[in-house]
Write a structure and sequence with these properties.
The chain is built from two helices and eight strands, in the order βββββαβαββ. It is of the alpha+beta class. The longest helix has 18 residues. The protein is globular and about 40 Å long. One of its GO terms (molecular function) is deaminase activity.
């Protein structure tokens, strides 16, 4: 089975780490953790604002790999402070089409890169 490494994606800043934004194997796309970053680096904001930027990156990466938000089957959310979950849940409820409910893991991390509040990673799959 071949692997496709998705590295350069328009609108997603290049990672300072030697990683791919995503790896596609067959009909599955593993999207690396995304933070609230832009061309100038980390963009601080509320957890909801940071999650909105991170999810934007996830969706752009999925599309660059040939997937759509409706193909996302799993989301992993890491928080610097789990008390921010309600505001991110409010955003999350608006991101996917009605009835599309990806599986999800939520946890608090001791520390996120750049001092971020939220990190989002995802898996997309299609038949």
């Amino acid at each position: 089975m071949t692997r496709e490494y998705i590295v350069d994606v328009a609108g997603v800043p290049e990672s300072p780490s030697p990683i791919s934004n995503a790896v596609v194997v067959g009909n599955t796309c593993w999207i690396s953790g995304q933070l609230s970053v832009g061309p100038g680096g980390y963009i601080p904001g509320t957890a909801r604002e940071e999650a909105e930027i991170a999810f934007g990156h996830v969706f752009r990466i999925a599309e660059a790999a040939g997937f759509s938000p409706s193909d996302i089957v799993y989301v992993d959310l890491a928080f610097a402070d789990l008390d921010d979950l309600p505001q991110v849940n409010a955003l999350y409820a608006t991101l996917f089409a009605p009835g599309h409910r990806p599986a999800r893991t939520v946890y608090q991390a001791a520390r996120l890169p750049f001092g971020g509040k939220v990190k989002v990673q995802a898996i997309a799959a299609r038949e």
